Amino acid sequence: MQAWLCENPTGVDALQWKELPTPQPQAGQVLVEIQAASLNFPDLLIVQNKYQIKPPLPFVPGSEYAGVVRAVGDGVRHLKVGQSVACLSGTGGFATHTLAPAALCMPLPPGFPPVDAAAFIMIYATSHHALIDRAQLKPGETVLVLGAAGGVGTAAIQIAKAAGARVIAAASTDDKCALCKSIGADQTINYTTHGLPNAFREAVKAATGGKGPDVIYDPVGGDFSEPAFRSIAWRGRYLVVGFASGPIPSLPLNLPLLKGASLVGVFWGDFAKREPQANGAMMQELAQWYAQGKVKPVIDRTMPMAELKAAYAHMGSRGVKGKLVLVN
User: Phi and psi of 133, rounded to 5°?
Assistant: First the structure.
């Protein structure tokens, strides 16, 4: 097998494409021949030693991937050799093969292509858990999605629309806004032309007839959080999803008081561990939604696995719309 090996987590340049012995699965594991792996923001942080999970060295990055089971370890009953699966295991994806915990593998129904499957679990599980579970989104409510052209943002638009909500998508270019419209957003705000804080707040006010959004989905953080929260509707729910812009913001706690609003944390990874039955039911519903055409990952482009460093550079340029996927 071949894999991108991180022996020294000083950044992307230190990764090396190496030949390694193909491992055999232990109890509870499966050997997956990887067909596709998506690039996520944590995949950048983990090779810079900036992610909250620090795997023992050396390790193979790549948190999310899809492929075919080629061998199963003892005790594995729900997966068989030759079965197509998707997996979000945190590491191992940027390779031709990996050992995956069988419990983390999602069996794929027929007609679920590996490129879509490799880009599916993280963004749709995060967005469904955020909007449907944590925000209790209701039909007819208005959702403001920040960073709406990214992976979780595009998933949030589709899930909010599937739930019967009205969606305002905020993104940084006209191209990205057009993409958001094409996948269901009712209105868009280009926050480069509607600068923070005042022009952005005025644009949100105009888009909601002065009421403000009922739910704000924020994977961006930084300078957006306070002006967005100041725009929220009475009894609104502000979803803290992530901090793609870098800085973790501080909010004045009088804002939730004045708006009768809730600040809601979204940590899908821990939800999946603590409430596995609820998470399993959610993933089953999402697979059905995919089959029904309600959700489909937006793929910015596919690139050969050997071009991982170029893929990282493209992600760093902030030009990605949806997800980047590496293929073998």
Answer: -85, -60
